[in-house]
Write a structure and sequence with these properties.
The complex is a heterodimer of chains A (163) and B (781). Chain A is of the alpha+beta class and 163 residues long. Helix content of chain A is 34%, strand content 17%. Chain A has two domains: 77 residues, Ubiquitin-like (UB roll) (Roll); 72 residues, Orthogonal Bundle (DNA polymerase, domain 1). The chains are: A alpha+beta (163), B alpha+beta (781). Chains A and B meet through α1, α2, α3, α4 and α5 of A and α1 and α17 of B. Bound molecules: FE2/S2 (inorganic) cluster (2 copies).
Chain lengths: 163, 781
């Protein structure tokens, strides 16, 4: 198995590693960097538990090779809020948008990207936006509310000039 | 003194702080020094003789440390293990495999990737054998015998009720409906799969087992019992159940992988991690349901008379159901449901087939969904046969509020209920009569729309120790509370949350009873070295059992606090009165001591003759089960061209008694509803005649996304449980139990005028389109 040198910026920090060509980005994040907030829920790119932002775009990190992410910026749940809670994290807490918490990091990163592209999404847009992420616990209604709430918080903080 | 946020408050969850930061600690997050990884080679055949396992092919892979086979385990007498139903299940086979994807051998290696390489490289020689997948065929004389150690494929016959009286009552009825239905195999598919890290310390003879388990204490005892001959004893086994990414019943059983990983740790002297893939999870872990039901229901003068259910239960190659030991078909005999009827008989015959062993619950109390599905479908059919609206027919046949406590003909004592109120509320919320009018108009235009009702009664909170045990261990549960000198507390429980929010809910119960704010109470579960013994979390039993224990232990603490308060206030105990968080002298409300002051005194100034400290434990043995109930009404639209069913509205009125945290209760119902419509419309695991699986991964097994899931509309009624200390009944599974029949009834309602009388689940577009086509009603575009 060929080995490659990669440098990936994760949550603002550069990480250089020697990796096997086949190493999945999700394993790079979890095993090499010890950032275990990114989860694995399937082996068919179906569940979205492994979602991270790759240069700002949500990707399923179980289906990206670490070598392919070389030179890119990755955001995981650990880097969402820069020390404070991100509005999406606040929304999920306030609206009970999580139960077991296993889908939650992926769900929140997808929601973050959704809100960056569409700061005022309607229910059907949110449902479509998160349809690549499975949640077995919540029945989705509170996740939709959480994303709406996050949109409100982001709007308020923009109006207050601190966004 | 301000009331602290006890019962009835939507307190934000304590556990969320770590989950939203990605700081949850799930099984795959555990990494021990020197840890090895285990992967499993599985059978491509549903039934085959293993003629040779070529260990060397795996051992040649770089990083592979060991290959574990049935022969390895046989040396420790661990090749087979007992199931919860006292059957036997292979851990690893010696010479035959009995279902596709069965564990054949395991490979241990220095990395996850090396273990997977080794498992893929391992060569195994098989001789395929004949396969039987249909349980009816398995019962035919001369059928392929699944188990070499048994005389036939018939596992057990269980029946309850009076068959003769039921037959007589059906014969005397003026209307009888009859229907066969199959509730197919489904899988809980929690988003986290199962796994473990086994760490054997040879020096101390101590085993630590990190495990995705809903019942850590029971697992510890089972491990101690099956390994006693190896010198392992219960005080040297520690089971730790870390954060769990959803359980729903799928994390109750002991899976072969856990035992193999433990053996591998013993063999290698290193910690061993095993995490299954999603495909392994769906293909090999315990399934739910797979009941083939023949139902008959009669009425006389519009009043339901008698119910008969005859059932074939497909258990796969071993009866590995997770039921209380005395109940081979779980609580299936709750099947008379919400109705007052005088005769019933129910039978179940368990059958072996070449499929994975089971069956467990799918977010439901033991076999209650099967029971509710049967009765709610039959009541709908009977209503129509009587020429009556299904809502009116139900309202007339419900057990009346004045009949509680109600003893059903099959022997359950229902604690409390008001079924009519719940259904009427649901009908109001959805605008039932208006929807019926709309349906009439739509039919005239050739459009398909249906309205379905399900008025379920649940039975949860197992259970009273006189009838409920698992392998002899009584089904109580426990709470141990300690108040620290500064008035903060730690509380530990025998249950184990998998996302239900126990850390918050239990703290609220204690807060209500003692007046200590929930944020001052640390709640812990899942470590058998620290938590009191309990049977775990499943079957909606945590609130009915451990929640009750929390209230009782709090009350014991309050009784001691009263003695300390009397000492501090120099008053007679009899002259003290309690308001939340404080004792005061009757008639002089200013003369009082808060629970925090009392706690401090318990360690600094306790009365002579009384022990220091402030703590209590309760092992709560419930006097009865609890019977949550509700009525669901759903409206569907069906596309004539594609057969696709769209749930337009879904109203759920639930009565789970007193609600501790309404936000969490609603969240539980939302999630349960999603898992209720899933088997009705999407989910199924099936097998071809050779035993090849369909539905064994997330491409084929359709867990609903936010797109298929409607915007749930919830309502509530509150009928407290008269025997639970705080009147709560449990709620985690009601919606999963109640929802499927509502959806089926709605679809059949939409198609009734075409001549459709029944739909099997899942009601996929193909299945619905076929029904339309058969009745000449499919649109051609
Ligand atoms: S782990 Fe399921 S999509 Fe990546
Ligand atoms: S919260 Fe459990 S899977 Fe979403």
């Amino acid at each position: 198995m060929s080995s490659h040198h990669v440098t990936i910026q994760v949550n603002g920090e550069e990480h250089a590693r020697e990796v096997e060509a086949r190493l999945l980005l999700v394993h790079f994040i979890r095993e090499e960097l010890g950032l275990t907030g990114t989860h694995i829920g399937c082996d068919t790119t179906s569940c979205g538990a492994c979602t991270v932002l790759l240069d700002g775009t949500p990707v399923k990190s179980c289906t990206v090779l670490a070598v392919a992410a070389g030179g890119s910026r990755v955001t995981t749940v650990e880097g969402m809020g820069n020390g404070e809670l991100h509005p999406v994290q606040q929304g999920f807490t306030e609206k009970h948008g999580l139960q077991c918490g296993f889908c939650t990091p992926g769900m929140m990163l997808t929601s973050k990207a959704l809100l960056e592209a569409n700061p005022d999404p309607q229910e059907d847009e949110i449902r479509w936006g998160i349809s690549g992420n499975l949640c077995r616990c919540t029945g989705y209604v509170n996740i939709v509310k959480a994303v709406r709430r996050a949109a409100e918080i982001m709007k308020e903080s923009k109006e207050n000039g601190d966004g | 003194m301000a009331k602290c946020r006890g019962l009835g408050h939507s307190v934000q969850r304590k556990e969320d702080a770590r989950f939203i930061r990605g700081q949850g600690r799930y099984i795959d997050d555990i990494k021990l020094p020197g840890m090895l990884y285990l992967d499993i080679t599985r059978s491509p055949y549903a039934h085959a003789k293993i003629t040779k396992i070529h260990d060397e092919t795996a051992l040649a892979v770089p990083g592979v440390a060991a290959v574990i086979t049935g022969k390895t385990l046989e040396a420790y007498n661990l090749a087979w293990m007992p199931t919860l139903m006292s059957d036997q299940q292979m851990v690893l086979p010696i010479d035959t495999v009995k279902y596709q994807a069965q564990e054949v051998a395991a490979v241990v290696a220095t990395s996850r990737y090396a273990a997977a390489d080794g498992a893929a490289a391992l060569e195994v020689d098989y001789e395929p054998l004949p396969v039987v997948v249909d349980p009816h065929a398995a019962l035919e004389p001369g059928a392929t015998r699944v188990r070499d150690d048994k005389d036939s494929n018939h596992i057990f016959h269980w029946e309850h009720g009076d068959r003769e009286a039921t037959e007589a009552a059906l014969a005397a009825s003026d209307t009888v409906v009859e229907q066969a239905m199959h509730l197919p195999r489904i899988h809980v598919a929690s988003i986290e799969t199962c796994g473990c890290v086994a760490s054997w310390n040879p020096v101390e003879g101590h085993l630590t087992l990190y495990l995705t388990t809903q019942a850590p204490h029971a697992i510890r005892t089972v491990v101690a019992l099956v390994t006693a001959h190896l010198g392992l004893a219960e005080h040297r086994i520690r089971v730790i159940s870390p954060d769990i990414g959803g359980g729903f019943g799928g994390k109750v059983p002991v899976y072969p992988g856990y035992v193999i990983a433990t053996a591998a740790s013993v063999v290698t002297g290193k910690p061993v991690k095993w995490i299954e893939d999603r495909s392994e999870n769906l293909q090999a872990d315990s399934f739910a349901r797979d009941y083939h039901i023949k139902a008959r229901l009669g009425s006389k003068g519009g009043k339901i008379t008698a119910l008969s259910l005859d059932t074939i239960a497909d258990h796969g190659y071993s009866d590995a159901a997770a039921n209380p030991s005395k109940f081979p078909a779980g609580l299936y005999h709750i099947c008379t449901g919400s109705y007052d009827l005088s005769d019933a008989h129910v039978s179940v015959d368990g059958v072996y087939t070449n499929k994975p062993p089971g069956g467990i619950a799918y977010r439901c109390s033991f076999r209650v969904t099967e029971a509710v599905h049967a009765i709610e479908r039959m009541v709908d059919l009977l209503a129509r046969e009587n020429g009556e609206d299904p809502a009116d027919f139900r309202l007339r046949n419900f057990i009346r509020p004045d009949q509680f406590p109600y003893t059903s003909v099959l022997g359950w004592e229902y604690d409390s209920g008001d079924y009519g109120a719940a259904l009427e509320k649901a009908m109001d919320m959805i605008g039932y009569r208006d929807l019926r009018a709309e349906q009439t108009e739509k039919r005239a235009r050739g459009e398909l729309m249906g309205i379905g009702i399900s008025s379920f009664t649940e039975i949860v909170g197992a259970g009273p120790s006189k009838t409920f045990d698992i392998l002899g261990i009584k089904m109580f549960d426990s709470s141990e509370i300690r108040i620290h000198p500064t008035g903060k507390a730690i509380a530990r429980f025998g249950t184990k949350s998998q996302g239900q929010g126990h850390e918050t809910t239990y703290a609220q119960i204690i807060a209500e009873e003692l007046g200590i704010p929930p944020e001052d109470i640390q709640v812990e579960e899942g470590d058998t070295d620290t938590a009191p013994y309990g049977l775990g979390t499943y079957a909606s039993r945590s609130t009915p059992t451990a929640g009750a224990a929390a209230a009782i232990a709090s009350r014991k603490i309050r009784a001691k606090a009263k003695k300390i308060a009397a000492h501090l206030l120099e008053a007679d105990e009899a002259d003290l009165e309690w308001e939340q968080g404080r004792f005061f002298v009757k008639g002089s409300p200013d003369r009082g001591k808060t629970i925090q002051e009392i706690a401090f005194a318990a360690y600094t100034n306790h009365p002579q003759g009384l022990e220091a400290g402030l703590e209590a434990t309760s092992y709560y043995d419930p006097p009865n089960l609890t019977f949550p109930f509700g009525s669901y009404v759903c409206a569907v639209d069906i596309d004539r061209g594609t057969g696709q069913v769209r749930i337009r509205r879904f109203v759920a009125v639930d009565d789970c008694g007193v609600r501790i945290n309404p936000m969490i209760v609603e969240g539980q119902i939302h999630g349960g509803l999603a898992m209720g419509i899933a088997p009705a419309l999407f989910e199924e695991i099936s097998y071809d005649p050779d035993g090849n699986i369909t539905g064994g991964n997330f491409v084929e097994y359709l867990v609903p996304t936010a797109m298929e899931t409607p915007h749930w509309e919830l309502g509530e009624t509150v009928t407290p449980s008269p025997h639970h200390p705080i009147g709560a009944k449990g709620v985690g599974e009601s919606a999963t139990v109640g929802a499927p029949a509502a959806v089926v009834n709605a679809v059949v309602d939409a198609l009734w005028h075409l001549g459709v009388r029944h739909m099997e689940i899942p009601m996929t577009p193909a299945r619905v389109w076929s029904a339309l086509n058969e009745h000449g009603a499919a649109a051609t575009r």
